[in-house]
Structure formats: structure tokens, C-alpha cells
Design goal:
Elements (H helix, E strand, L loop, with lengths): L20 E9 L3 H16 L3 E9 L6 H12 L3 E5 L4 H11 L8 E4 L4 H4 L3 E2 L2 E2 L9 H13 L3 H16 L5 H18 L2 H20 L21 E3 L11 H9 L15 E7 H5 L4 H12 L3 E7 L5 H7 L13 E4 L14 H11 L3 E3 L1 E2 L5 H6 L6 H14 L6 E5 L6 E3 L1 H19 L7 E5 L17 H14 L11 H9 L4 H4 L5 E6 H7 L7 H4 L12 E9 L2 E5 L11 H4 L7 H13 L4 E5 L20 H6 L4 E6 L3 H10 L2 E6 L4 E3 L5 H15 L5 H14 L18 H19 L2 E3 L11 H4 L3 H17 L5 H21 L7 E4 L17 E4 L2
Parallel strand pairs: 1-2, 1-3, 3-4, 8-9, 8-10, 10-11, 12-13, 15-18, 15-19, 19-20, 20-21, 24-25
Antiparallel strand pairs: 5-6, 7-9, 13-14, 16-17, 17-18, 22-23
Helix pairs in contact: 1-8, 6-7, 7-8, 11-16, 17-18, 26-27, 28-30, 30-31
Length: 859
């Protein structure tokens, strides 16, 4: 399904050797941005170096899942002089790399593995320098590094980078060969982190000079002199980058001074009140020259009127540049950005293998700004993503969507594609426009006066009927909306003509009390002419394949598109249209040709383009916007959830007990979910025939040794049939007298267990109202619920053998559980009498409590 690009596109060989030594290189990396820089470096060597030429075969780690690619990889490694690996953090693929390289490691001239899983790091081989004992060594150095890592947490990598800058200089003066090999490894890391074609060219020449040429001199042939190469060019580990800036800045004041001196931008961008967007970038894209998508993002924000502060970090702790550059240099408590967009695709602190979410959350709390994480395609090409119904590669969903969400990241929109031939990032202009417009909307919410902000509250109506307007799982929708609107009005928002009660608010929206059940007509807030609809809805033409030309037959009066709802000042309560396939709702999810109808599209066009909502609040679990056709993850410009929500910030009340569908709303509808409590639950209890059945079972317990036992069991079986329990418990067809006493006990025990399951089933008490805390009674712990569950499990285990001892076991366990529970429920530890109000009353027997009290069965 993914990674159809063959690694042969990364095979480079010299046209002619002309007597030069051929060095064969194989590399495998996580991210593609090094591909173009490595290719440029190798072509430069092959074109100009008189002593060596390089043949390279490159792989992206995900390509090794393909069997043919993996076989090619093993063959290439077996013939190689140099092996290079970086960021191999996917464990099953790390094992495949080790399986291919380990058998031929000794025949390699050099193997260089940059931060990866431990098993991959053990493949390192540079002369006498090796990491084969990594994780096993008891040396003082290993102990020191382990303690440093445990102490430093997420800052460990930064400490390593500092060590990296200084250690090669020190080791250079040590005569010991092993120390020189260690220096060469650290030097290699510097070349690699530098990432530019020039650095990578010198990196390859250094490896060839130190570890390949020494063993490859041919007797009788001209001896090759030492290769000439430069020391690595270093770049700041952390700083501020701008595509038109003459240098990278390491001080926010210097950057802002330069920004305000620019002549290529309007004076509005230099205004201190201009919206400011913080961008978080990956340093590797900058140093390798693979920054086209970053340039496009900066240009688009500036075109929309925003000042941009693009920061980067050399490691994977992006909280450091956020702390350093997104706060006022004088007052560190004052944030100078209005929104932050991370273009790394990673967590704020940490990479694929390890994250430090507490540190990230601490930074983001202090920042207190919307934090969006846009996604560069990594494991698939642009064409693969565009053609896929699934959308993002599953590994990318895990690494670059789910993990950033743990920090609090929102709106995972694809930022850039990838060219299969060069590996370079490709700017996806429509996606960049979507990200920038949504970020600007979030930024404007901070700056816009409350009285001018316009909020659209969207409620649902499913199934489509007047009586179902404003339904949501476990939520009193209009009661909650009423409280929210009252709070908005009190906080300075323009809320006009608020009715006197939730019921009156409901009638305002549905227009007529009598029409609640007998009329399909809701209050019409806006009539949108077809011409206006077509002009403002770019994707309207695509809907005609399913619904014909507008206005269609849903949400229309035959001439206009109808938007149902009512405005109360700057707060609009709108009814989300039905999704059109009421007879086959799953068609929206599974049919590639399905689409929203014209009325559905017109509703969101109204919110975006006509009402001009600053934010939309989807009220309750749940609507159908997020379930509209499109990719499962990583929406494109042809996916209907993306088309419909447009640039409006989307807030969504979602039941706390439904995180799975809330995640769909977050990822497909760009929703920021606000969880609401489900109402307190209580036992369903027994009623009618079930209650009679419970009494018969209680009667059997007291008379099972008498002559009435068979008669009672017959009555139990017949009542169980009337209650349809024969669908859950196998009931005998004949007379209970044909059963042995043990079989009768087992049968009644199984019926009773099923009865307890029904009785203890949880039902919600009423509906939750947003902003209204539960009462003291509702907050009290439902002891009987927990106890019934424990007792049911005990009875189930006891009755599996259908033995006479089952009832004794049930009675004993029930009584012990009841004693413990009633002891817990007593308000005073000195109380000597416990009262049992538990649902298994027939089985309670008088028994001394651990404190000497007696247990009384109520009833």
C-alpha cells in the first residue's frame, strides 16, 4: 500500500573509474531529507576527485518491509565497504537491519550508526572503536553515561551534543589509536549533523581515507596519497532561521531588529500589534537544503499579514527554542507569539524512540497558545498519499500524529509531500494555505474583542425528525447551551434576546411547539440562492454525481438552500443537516463515491463565508461532519471533512466515555475536544417477571430440601422462558423431577447468575448539564454496583461445576463481601450493627462481623 518507490532510484555509480579506487557505500535512514544532500555529495566526488569514486545504494527504513527490497539490501551490504545508518527506532525493522549487517560486519571496512536502537548501535565499527558491548559494559564511562541520562532526562541529548563539540578537539592530541578512532566517530557525527552536501562529501572522504584506502593499496599500482578533506562546518544547534535572512540568529532581539529593518515587507508586519506566529522547524531540513516547504510556509504567513518567528533545534528537544525565542526577552513571563505551528511532525520533546511529555506539557502550559503540529510525509511519496484511501502511513500516524497529541497538539494537517526520486520535500500549496488560514483564525481569537467575536453553536438532529433536534449522548443539549450562552453574556460577548429558559430557547430554534412532532420545518435562519451557493462552495460541483444539481431535495424550498437555526446577537445556534443516507448511514464511511448533500455543504458555507464564524462549537456526541467521506487520516484538499470545516476553529463537546470517536473528530474534523461527564449510573434493577423470578429463586433456597423443590424449579423454568432467558441459559424441556438434586442446583444457579447480570447492569441517571456539578447524592460511590460485580464473578466460578457445594460457596462469599461492604459504609467505626441492603438479600445469613457486630438482612 505504501513505499512503492524502489531503492534503485538512490543507486549512484561513477560513469568511469579512470584508475580510481571504487568505494561502495550503503546507507539506511528514517527520514528522506539526507537523500538529496548525500546524492549531491557523491556526484561531486565522482565528478572531481582524482583518487576515489563512490558507488552508493540508499534505503529508507520502511522500504525494508518489502521482501525484494530486503534481499537487495542484504546483497548490497555484503558487497559494501562502508555502512551508514541513522535514526533506526522501529524495533522490528532494527532487527532486520541487524540480521542483514551482523554476519558481514567483520568484512566491512567501516560501519557508522548514528542514534538508533541499541542493537543497531552495536554494529558501529571504526578501526579499534566499537560499540559491540553497548548496554553490557560495566566500565566507568558506561556507568557515568547511564547516571547522566537518568539525571538529565530529556536534556541528555543536549549534553551529548555539547560533548560532541568538544571531544574531537581533545581526542585529536591523544596518541592512542583507539582514541583517534573514537574521535573519528564523533567527527562523523558532526559531519552528519551538519548535513550539507559539503559536510557529507568530506564525511565520505574521511571514511575512505582512514578506513578504506589503507587496506586497498594494490601492489604495483600507483600509491594513493591521503585524501584531502575539510573539517566539518558547524551550524548553531539552536536558533532562528528565515529564508531571506543573511544568517541564522541565536538571539531573539537580533532577529526582531533585522526583521523590522526589512524593506521587502509592508509596514503592517513591523507593527507591534501584528499577529505573530511561531514556527518550530527541524534543523536537518535547513542544513541539508531541503527547506522548500518551510520557505512556502513562511511566505504564506507573511502574505496573510503575520510576523513569523521560525525556530529550530539540533536535537529533539524543541522546548528549548520555544522557551528561548517565543517569550519576551525582557519579561520572560510574557508570550510574544499568538499561535505556534510545529512543522517537525514530532513530539515537542523527544523523537521516535523516547518522549518527555511532562516537560513538553510544562512548556506549552507556560506558553498558553494554540499548538498545531503539521505533518511532512515521511514514509510515502506524494502520489502514494494522494491515491490512498487510508491516507497516512500507519507508522506515521503513530509517531507523528498520536504521540504529539499526548503533548496537546491539535489539527494534524499534512504539510508537504515527498518526491520519490530525490527524496526532497514538496510544498503542498493547498495544505499550506489550510494550515496558515486556520492558524491565523486561532491567533485572531486572542486579539479580537469579545463583543465582536461570532460563535456558531451546531446541534444535531438524528434521526431526522423535529423531536430529535438537539440530541446528544448523555447530554441535556439545550439546558447546557442555555448555561453556556448565559456565561458568554456575563463575560462580555454579544448575546441578545436570550430566552428565559432552556425550554423557551428550544422553541425559538424549532419555531413552533406544535411542529415539534408534526412538521419537518425548523426555524429558517438563512435562504441561500443557488448562485451564491455555487460561487462560495468550490467543491459543490463534485456533489452533483450523487445528488444532482443544486438545490437538490434536502434542506431546500425548491429554489434556495435553507440553513436552519437562529441567531442571538453574535451567537448562532444552527441545526446540522441530516447526512442524507439515513437508510444506509454506513455508506458515508465505506463508499468511495459518497458525499455530503448540497444542503449539508451549504450549512458550513454559511458558517464560513456568510455568518463569518470565528469559531464553531459542535454541541455533543456526535454529528456527522467528521464521518464524511475522505481519507482516514491526513486529509487532502478533496476530503469532505476538510472542505466543510474550512478555516473555522472547531470546538467539540464530547462524552468522556467515548475517546475513540472523539479521536476521529480531532483528526478528521480538526476538532479540539472538550470532555463532558456522563451522568451517574445506577443498577437497572428487576421488574415484572424478572422480579417474580428472583423471588422464586429465593424460595428455592429455603425449600430445596423439601418436597416443594421440584415444583419451584418448574415454576422458575417457566418464568425464565416468559422472560426470554432461554436465549441465554439452556432450559430443560421436561419436568424438573427428572433432574437430580445437583442438576437442579446447577440450573437454578445459572439462572440466578444471569438475573444478577441484568439487575446490576448500569443505567445513566438523567442527562448531564454542562457547568452543573453532580449533587452529593450523585457523587456517592455505588457500592452495590461493585459488590454485585464481585459476587457475580464468584457465583460464576462456583457454579461452573454444578455441584451442591456451589450454593454454600455463593452464600459464604456473598456474606463475607456484604460484611466488608457494610463495614466500609458505616459512618462510625464504633457501630456494632451493620445493615445489609444488598441486592442478593435471599442469600444473606446472620453472621458475626470482624468487630463482633451482627449482620441484619433488611426486608
Amino acid at each position: 500500500m505504501f513505499t512503492h518507490v524502489k531503492p534503485t532510484v538512490r543507486h549512484i555509480a561513477p560513469d568511469e573509474l579512470n584508475g580510481r579506487l571504487l568505494v561502495k557505500v550503503v546507507y539506511v535512514v528514517l527520514e528522506p531529507q539526507y537523500q538529496s544532500a548525500l546524492s549531491a555529495a557523491i556526484r561531486s566526488i565522482n565528478a572531481s576527485n582524482p583518487q576515489v569514486a563512490i558507488e552508493v545504494n540508499g534505503y529508507l527504513i520502511e522500504e525494508l518491509r518489502d521482501a525484494s527490497n530486503y534481499e537487495s539490501f542484504k546483497q548490497d551490504v555484503a558487497e559494501a565497504n562502508v555502512f551508514i545508518a541513522s535514526l533506526i527506532f522501529i524495533e522490528d525493522l532494527a532487527d532486520k537491519v541487524v540480521e542483514a549487517v551482523q554476519p558481514v560486519r567483520d568484512s566491512l571496512d567501516v560501519a557508522v550508526c548514528f542514534p538508533s536502537m541499541p542493537q543497531v548501535m552495536r554494529l558501529n565499527k571504526m578501526g579499534r572503536f566499537s560499540m559491540a558491548q553497548l548496554g553490557q559494559s560495566k566500565s566507568m564511562i558506561a556507568s557515568f553515561m547511564k547516571k547522566r541520562k537518568e539525571k538529565s532526562g530529556a536534556g541528555f541529548q543536549d549534553a551529548m551534543l555539547k560533548l560532541l563539540r568538544t571531544l574531537p578537539t581533545v581526542l585529536k592530541y591523544l596518541p592512542v589509536e583507539k582514541a583517534q578512532d573514537a574521535r573519528n566517530f564523533m567527527l562523523s557525527f558532526q559531519y552528519w549533523l551538519g548535513g550539507s552536501p559539503e559536510n557529507l562529501e568530506n564525511f565520505l572522504l574521511m571514511l575512505a581515507d582512514r578506513y578504506v584506502l589503507a587496506d586497498k593499496q594494490i601492489d604495483g599500482a600507483p600509491q594513493i596519497d591521503s585524501l584531502a578533506y575539510e573539517e566539518p562546518v558547524t551550524y548553531p544547534d539552536m536558533g532562528i532561521w528565515h529564508p531571506v535572512a543573511p544568517t541564522m540568529f541565536e538571539d531573539i532581539k537580533e532577529y526582531l531588529n533585522w526583521y523590522n529593518s526589512r524593506r521587502d515587507i509592508a509596514d503592517d508586519l513591523k507593527d507591534p500589534l501584528a499577529p505573530t506566529i511561531g514556527l518550530v522547524l527541524q534543523r536537518t531540513h535547513l542544513v541539508t537544503g531541503d527547506e522548500a516547504h518551510y520557505v512556502a510556509m513562511v511566505q504564506e504567513f507573511e502574505y496573510l499579514g503575520a510576523k513569523v518567528i521560525p525556530v529550530f533545534a539540533g536535537g529533539l528537544d524543541f522546548s528549548k527554542p520555544v522557551d528561548a525565542y517565543f517569550f519576551d526577552p525582557v519579561d520572560k513571563t510574557k508570550t510574544i507569539v499568538d499561535a505556534v505551528v510545529s512543522l517537525t511532525g514530532f513530539a515537542l520533546v523527544g523523537g521516535p524512540a523516547r518522549q518527555d511529555h511532562p516537560k513538553a506539557i510544562e512548556t506549552l502550559k507556560r506558553l498558553n497558545r494554540p499548538y498545531m503540529v503539521a505533518l511532512p510525509l515521511v514514509f510515502q511519496t506524494t502520489e502514494e498519499w494522494e491515491d490512498s484511501d487510508l491516507g497516512l502511513h500507519p507508522i506515521q500516524v503513530a509517531l507523528q500524529m498520536a504521540i504529539p497529541e499526548l503533548d496537546g497538539a491539535i489539527e494534524p494537517i499534512v504539510l508537504s509531500g515527498r518526491d520519490g526520486l530525490t527524496g526532497r520535500a514538496i510544498s503542498l500549496q493547498d495544505r499550506i494555505e489550510s494550515i496558515t488560514q486556520r492558524a491565523m483564525k486561532w491567533a485572531s481569537l486572542r486579539r479580537k474583542p469579545k463583543v465582536d467575536k461570532k460563535l456558531a453553536i451546531t446541534i444535531f438532529s438524528f434521526p431526522p425528525d423535529k423531536g430529535n433536534v438537539g440530541t446528544a449522548a448523555y447530554l441535556d443539549v439545550f439546558g447546557s447551551i442555555y448555561r453556556v450562552m448565559a456565561a458568554l453574556k456575563q463575560n462580555g460577548y454579544d448575546v441578545q434576546d436570550l430566552p428565559e429558559s432552556p425550554e423557551a430557547l428550544l422553541q425559538e430554534v424549532i419555531h413552533d411547539a406544535q411542529a415539534q412532532y408534526h412538521s419537518p420545518e425548523l426555524n429558517v435562519a438563512y435562504r441561500m440562492p443557488v448562485r451564491e451557493y455555487q460561487a462560495l462552495t468550490p467543491y459543490a460541483e463534485r456533489l452533483e454525481d450523487n445528488w444532482g444539481p443544486p438545490p437538490g431535495h434536502l434542506n431546500t424550498d425548491g429554489e434556495n438552500m435553507l440553513v436552519y437555526g437562529k441567531a442571538f446577537g453574535n451567537v448562532f445556534i444552527g441545526v446540522q443537516p441530516t447526512f442524507g443516507y439515513e437508510g444506509d448511514p454506513m455508506r458515508l464511511l465505506f463508499s468511495r463515491s459518497a458525499s455530503p448533500h448540497h444542503g449539508f455543504a451549504a450549512y458550513y458555507t454559511f458558517l464560513n463565508k456568510i455568518w463569518g464564524a470565528d469559531a464553531v462549537l459542535h454541541f455533543g456526541t456526535h454529528g456527522s461532519l467528521e464521518f464524511m467521506p475522505g481519507k482516514q487520516m491526513g486529509m487532502s484538499g478533496t476530503c469532505y471533512p476538510d472542505n466543510l470545516i474550512g478555516s473555522i476553529p472547531n470546538l467539540y463537546y464530547y462524552a468522556a466515555n467515548n475517546p475513540s470517536e472523539a479521536t476521529i473528530a480531532k483528526r478528521r474534523g480538526y476538532a479540539e475536544t472538550i470532555s463532558y461527564l456522563t451522568p451517574p449510573a445506577e443498577n437497572a434493577g428487576l421488574y415484572k417477571g424478572l422480579k417474580e423470578l428472583s423471588e422464586l429463586i429465593g424460595s428455592y433456597q429455603g425449600n430445596k430440601e423439601s418436597g416443594r423443590a421440584v415444583q419451584i424449579v418448574n415454576a422458575i423454568v417457566e418464568t425464565a422462558r416468559v422472560c426470554n432467558l432461554d436465549k441465554d441459559v439452556t432450559l430443560p424441556e421436561g419436568d424438573a423431577g427428572d433432574l437430580s438434586a445437583e442438576e437442579r442446583d446447577g440450573l437454578v444457579g445459572k439462572i440466578y447468575i444471569k438475573l444478577m447480570e441484568i439487575e446490576s447492569r448500569l443505567l445513566p441517571c438523567g442527562l448531564h448539564v454542562v457547568g452543573k456539578p453532580p449533587s452529593a447524592e450523585e457523587r456517592s460511590p455505588p457500592w452495590s454496583i461493585s459488590l454485585v460485580w464481585i459476587a457475580r464473578k464468584t457465583a460464576s466460578r462456583a457454579c461452573n461445576g454444578s455441584s451442591r457445594r456451589a450454593w454454600g460457596e455463593i452464600s459464604r462469599r456473598f456474606t463475607e463481601t456484604a460484611i466488608a461492604a457494610t463495614s466500609l459504609m458505616c459512618n462510625s467505626s464504633t457501630t456494632s450493627t451493620r445493615v445489609c441492603a444488598l441486592p442478593w438479600r435471599p442469600w444473606c445469613t446472620s453472621r458475626s462481623t470482624p468487630r463482633g457486630g451482627s449482620l441484619w438482612c433488611r426486608g
